[in-house]
Design a protein that fits this description.
The chain is mainly α. The chain is built from eleven helices and seven strands. A seven-stranded parallel β-sheet has the order 5-4-3-2-1-6-7.
Length: about 475
């Protein structure tokens, strides 16, 4: 039996073995004394003393003292001290210090720093800087001008595309009269249709009084009518059947008394095209004025008043030859109201002709494809370049315009090669009645809205220059 001695730590001499006990290992007592030789090493106490060399290294305490050399490196504390060399680099804090060389460059902040070299798409401009929508200009009034106002664009006119092509050696387009040729614009726009009244175009034309523009009118009142005007699908004159020599020969027949007893009817009808206007009475006067009509020019006023004014002379309807072309001069607001009813096939909605059915005034021959409306630019061009009356410099400037006969003659000058004028005022006008329908001698009436004397001198000058042939009774009587 061995002596009882104080327990000693196991012998750590190299090569010496401690015999295995024959009894199972007991749980270590909860005492702090060193264990028996025969008992396995207990779990280390929660003391702060350093462990025995033979015990496995415990988990490091949560103390702040530096770890033992044999202990694995603990996770770095959340302190601000620099990390150990053997530790992986932690994620950079959200500080402003420059990032580690091994870290990817962070995304640039949404600051005002210069953009990267890759070009960014240009931003859309803000709506505040976009140009304002064009609107109709303020209305101008005739009473605010004591004479015809002059604008920088007064003599600017829309063009109508390809001018008339001709091989006619006698064509007025080959005139030797330099004064006429300087003023003549062969491709000036003749007709207006629904594509011609944008806001910008309105603002240009609103500077001119009627019928040369839309001064004093409201944009919506005119546009509702113009938007109904169809674009012409055929030229005013179909020139497939040119007469010998390749010339388009036209007669323009006015209502002057010089034709009374003239016997010019057959000569007039022999022309390829015949233009007439206003109260074009032919029945009973065929020997003097002929009976053919290719183009009839009118205003809403002339087509309505002629039916009662000339009724005593046998005028019961406007000319209505098969295939006739009707041309309207839009001289005022009443003409646009007329157009609204005519092209909508409804009664006129307002104005002087309210309630009327306009298409019934064309004797069954009205056809949109054969209906034309003269452009205000064409009317202003005729006045400015050929028939500019001195009255335009006075207080009555706004009512003065060329006559319907004058506009008709210039329409023929822009669509024909050769133009012969009949029934226009000549120097000996006092010898004849006012109109050819009047059997008795009447005094010629001069209306304030037309400068007849200036027109008479213009026709004589054109005749002398060979631009037109003007029928003059005195010349005929001398042969």
């Amino acid at each position: 039996m061995s002596k009882t001695t104080t327990a000693m730590p196991p012998d750590t001499t190299p090569g010496r073995e401690t015999p295995m006990p024959t009894m199972p290992a007991a749980k270590p007592p909860l005492v702090t004394s060193p264990p028996s030789e025969t008992m396995p090493a207990p779990k280390p106490p929660l003391a702060t003393s350093p462990p025995s060399e033979s015990m496995p290294a415990p988990k490091p305490p949560l103390a702040t003292s530096p770890p033992s050399e044999t202990m694995p490196a603990p996770k770095p504390p959340l302190a601000t001290s620099p990390p150990s060399e053997s530790m992986p680099a932690p994620k950079p804090p959200l500080a402003t210090s420059p990032p580690s060389e091994t870290m990817p460059a962070p995304k640039p902040p949404l600051a005002t720093s210069p953009p990267s070299e890759t070009p960014m798409p240009a931003p859309k401009p803000p709506l505040a800087t976009s140009p304002p929508r064009e609107t109709p200009m303020p209305v101008l009034f005739k009473k605010d001008f004591d004479k015809l106002p002059r604008w920088d664009f007064e003599d600017v006119y829309k063009r109508g595309g390809q001018p008339m092509q001709t091989t006619c050696p006698q064509s007025l387009r080959r005139s030797a009269d330099q004064s006429f040729m300087r003023s003549f614009i062969p491709d000036v726009r003749l007709f207006m249709h629904k594509e011609h009244l944008s806001v910008s175009e309105w603002n240009r034309l609103a500077h001119f009084n009627n019928p040369f523009g839309f001064m004093e009118y409201q944009y919506e009142d005119v546009k509702v009518a113009v938007d109904l005007i169809p674009e012409p699908t055929h030229p005013l004159l179909l020139q497939a059947s040119r007469q010998p020599g390749g010339c388009v020969r036209c007669a323009v027949v006015g209502n002057g008394g010089i034709l009374n007893g003239s016997g010019m009817g057959k000569e007039i009808d022999a022309h390829e095209f015949v233009f007439r206007m206003n109260g074009a009475v032919t029945r009973g006067f065929e020997q003097d004025v002929g009976n053919r009509t290719s183009v009839y020019v009118h205003t809403a006023h002339s087509i309505t008043t002629s039916l009662w004014y000339w009724k005593p002379y046998g005028f019961h309807s406007v000319p209505h030859d098969e295939g006739i072309k009707y041309v309207l001069i839009p001289e005022g607001m009443r003409d646009f109201q007329w157009l609204t009813g005519l092209l909508n096939r409804t009664t006129v909605p307002a104005g002087a002709y309210e309630g009327m059915r306009p298409w019934t005034s064309y004797a069954g021959q009205f056809d949109e494809e054969r209906f034309y409306v003269l452009h205000p630019d064409f009317l202003r061009y005729v006045r400015n370049r050929f028939l500019k009356s001195s009255v335009l410099s006075g207080k009555n400037w706004s009512v003065v315009r060329p006559s319907n006969g004058a506009f008709t003659l210039f329409l023929a000058l822009h669509t024909c090669d050769v133009v012969d004028a009949y029934g226009f005022m000549t120097e000996d006008y006092a010898k004849y009645p006012n109109y050819y329908m009047e059997r008795e001698k009447t005094k010629v009436v001069f209306y304030i809205n037309h400068d007849y004397m200036m027109e008479m001198k213009t026709w004589k000058r054109f005749h002398d220059a060979g631009v037109i042939k003007l029928y003059q009774r005195e010349r005929e009587d001398s042969h």
